[in-house]
Amino acid sequence: MRCYQIFRLVTSLLIILSVPSLTYASSTTSESIHQPTSRFVSKMSIHHGPDEKPYKAALTFDDGPDQVFTPQILDLLKQMKVKATFFVIGKNAAKYPEIIKRIENEGHILANHSWDHANFHHLNEYQIKKEIMQTDQLLTSITGHKPLLFRAPYGNITSSLEVQLKSMEHLLIGWSVDTRDWAGPDVPTILQTVTKQIRPGGIILQHCASGQQVNLTNTIEALPLIVQKLTKEGYTFVTIPELLSTQAYKMEP
Questions:
Q1: pLDDT tens, 180-227?
Q2: How many other C-beta atoms lie within 10 A of the C-beta of residue 87?
Q3: Is 90 exceeded by the pLDDT of residue 4?
Q4: Interior CA angle at 79 toward 250 and 103, to 5°?
Q5: Does the active-site annotation cover 62?
Q6: Which residue among 37, 156, 181, 235 is buried most deeply as judged by most CB within 10 Å?
């Protein structure tokens, strides 16, 4: 009898282990909001600048502006005399045009990050073009010039997106250092990630606006530490146009 019970137990365990685990995806989680979903391999996307001396790195901030974290980041950058590149969401820029003006007036670069952070994997060419054009037009109306830099939401690049960007003369910018700050890592983890992934010419991805289930308090606390550490290692912080020797804007007549 005892041998039979052991046999039943072992058989049950084998059945459980043989069944694939189920993963439930929700569009409201932080992971699904920011995690890349496309398997398309882009030859157009630029992930880093030249690997040469003097060492340079570019700070970039996505998803802004907002009224909570973007101003704090701007305050810190001003105190440290560091310039950065802000990939902004069109609908957020429409809500806070004064912060867009502040970003530009303080010497930072404004770039396009789509109108509402749509997943381009699910959009057709017309919809993709609209996402880009709406944001271009809004930023032009606020600043007087059209951005030429673009970063795909979720890092999700498609062939249709590349076609549109080429026709609109936009440069597609990725990143080489992903802090994953949207996921809420603590400050030491953010600093460790940057230290581990940074190389000369590195493009550092962070965020400057809070969304659903996203708290960027640790981004604020980590920023001065990142600047201090990399400066000690010989890095100079530059904007994306400076790093890549390219234009930030197309001046409108």
A1: 999 999 999 999 999 999 999 999 999 999 876 789 999 999 999 999
A2: 28
A3: no
A4: 25
A5: yes
A6: 181
Residue 117 annotated to the active site:
no
The pTM score is 0.85
Please classify residue 112 by burial: count the beta carbons closer than 10 Å to its beta carbon, then call 0-12 exposed, 13-18 middle and 19+ buried. Answer: buried
User: Per the structure block, which two tokens stand in for 84?
Assistant: 């950065």
- Residue 16 is which amino acid? I
Given 48, 108, 113, 207, the catalytic residue: 207
> Which of 66, 152, 111, 129 minimizes the C-alpha distance to 248?
111
pLDDT at position 251, please?
74
Q: List phi, psi (to 5°) of 146.
A: -90, 130
CB atoms closer than 10 angstroms to residue 225 = 14
Residue length of the chain: 253
Residue type, 56: K
The token pair at 75 is 């305050």
Check residues 19 and 107 and name the one with the higher pLDDT: 107
How many CB atoms are located within 10 Å of the residue 199 CB? 12
What is the distance between the alpha carbons of residues 153 and 63, in angstroms, rounded to a whole number?
A: 9
Does 54 sit behind a cis peptide bond, omega within 30 degrees of 0 on the bond before it?
A: yes
> Per the residue annotation, which of 34, 48, 62, 181 is the catalytic one?
62
CB 158, CB 40: distance < 8 Å: yes
pLDDT digits 0-9 by tens, 28-40:
233 334 555 445 6
Q: What is the mean pLDDT of residues 6-16?
A: 38
Kindly give, in sequence order, each residue whose CB lies less than 8 Å from that of residue 164, ignoring residues fewer than 6 positions away: 125, 128, 129, 132
